[in-house]
Amino acid sequence: MNDSMPDVLGAGETDSDDTPDDSAWWQSSVVYQIYPRSFADSNGDGIGDLRGIIARLDHLEILGVDIIWLSPIYASPHDDNGYDISDYRAIDPVFGTLEDFDLLVAEVHRRGMTLLMDLVVNHTSDEHPWFVESASSRDNPKRDWYWWRPARTGGIGGEPGAEPTNWGSFFSGSTWEFDEASGEYYLHLFSRKQPDLNWENADVREAVYEMMRWWLDRGVDGFRMDVINLISKDPALPDGVIAPDKHYGDGFPHYGYGPRIHEFLHEMHERVFAGRVGRFLTVGEMPGVTVEQARRFTDPARRELDMVFQFEHVGLDYGPSGKWDPRPLDVRELKASFARWQEGLAKVGWNSLYWNNHDQPRAVSRFGDDRLYWAKSATMLATVLHFQRGTPYVYQGEELGMTNVPFGGISDFRDIESLNYFAEAIEELGGEPESVLHSIRHISRDNARTPIQWSDEPQAGFTAGSPWIAVNPNYPTINAQSQHGRAGSIFEFYRTLIALRHTDPVISRGTFELLYPEHRTLVAYTRTLKNRQLLVLANFGNGHLEVGELSDIELPEADAWRTAPTLIDNYPANEGIDNLVLAPWQARVLTRCLR
Ligand code: TEU
Ligand code: CA
After folding, report:
1. Residue 203 annotated as catalytic
2. What is d(CA 121, CA 206) in angstroms, rounded to the nearest whole number?
3. How much of the chain is in helix, strand and coil states, percent to nearest 5?
4. Can you tell me which atom of ligand 1 is nearest the CA of 311?
């Protein structure tokens, strides 16, 4: 397999004929992400668990989702809430047992849904036996299972600046930790308790493939793969460029799309899935991936991945110095990004569509208006995303319109990324605590990690105990119980969106065309399949929008649309209204037959 392979149409997967091929069974599916720690607690210890999830599967079945992605539930010291695994074949006791897991798989399958596990194999926990052995001595057979290096030439081990490369970690500080005992450094792109595995070592790869087959044998239907585009590093480990306002070098060019990444992902596909009976799904989380790279990774003919998570649209409100320096979203940039990915993967490959996950603050607060137009902006955002071509992901609580949290001081936070940044910003960068806290409150991952708000009972019905992180105080008004079966609720709106994707092939297979790219608040695009066309109109603001009055060159046959039937609208239908006039944060999808 080499990447000069011409981009051919994958096995008829994604051209716009309407006979989907079974190997892409997931193309009209919707995925629901569960963050087990915060979903539902069954034993009152304040931490969500597997029996809690089993008890709440009705919520997902009613919502209509097809696939469940479980964030990590493996044995872990929880330095990064489970993304630091110490035993890949054990369920962490805080979440339950393998028996609980088998029951969950059975219950999910009984309801016609499928289950994806989170595969975290760019790194392990430093408490994983592999690393404990590897660190035990320089000549341990597993030494090469990780990236060990001596201090850079002229450097004294442990002294600042002596690290083998100048790379900065995703969680602040250097990517290298000095191990006094063996006198060498080990690489960790994330926390020091998350040492990176050395995928150059074939035994490492085989051990990972064997573990994946073990979970598939246990009934798992696929994997969401954590930072999987980082597993191939440039073995020369060159230094990175140091940006003006940064202390460390940017190592991403040396590990973000490494020389053997396609070889490893193809090998994984062949060693784990090839010849295995059943329907499986793989989605790779890939910070920094480009459209061209994604097309290669998800081209069915290349047998690597089914889809990837790209980060372009969730970085558009990052200021010049990164995520902790927020700036307002420019809707034109958002539309351009959507169009780039929709058009880029139109013929070959497939998109993952998401606003939220356990690493992003709540989109309704970030991109919408969670005060005056909470429900309208939440359902507008959902409409803009769910009518695109690709597989939508709903993150737990998004279907209820859960918002960001009015965090107070640093003691309210739990996320290692936020806590490490706070420490670095204060100690090393001399930041003023309140202004550092201001940016952390806005963008911290903890905004997505507060307990699910099931009801207006104490602790929002999440736990009978005290939760590991405080429940959002708005739970009395924002909760599942008050939305189940209530017409006009955000939950019922998501149900309708998901049902439409299941029944209307133009949504999963139609071509995409963006309209009004330069308009500052209007998001408008069409989806077309044979003689069926949808017009998606959304108002990304709290003003009124007269779509019709805008230069009509860009909305062909505006008159036809003015009276076309409505497929869905986040405002109650009222007669005689002009289809092309949008109220604040309104989203309306019109449908018509093309002659
Ligand atoms: O996230 C990778 C990743 O890119 C995020 O850390 C991202 O950079 C950041 O959160 C956005 O601000 C994956 C997991 O989703 C995340 O929860 C883990 O912390 C991380 O990998 C390490 O396993
Ligand atoms: Ca529990």
Report:
1. no
2. 12
3. 35, 20, 50
4. 4
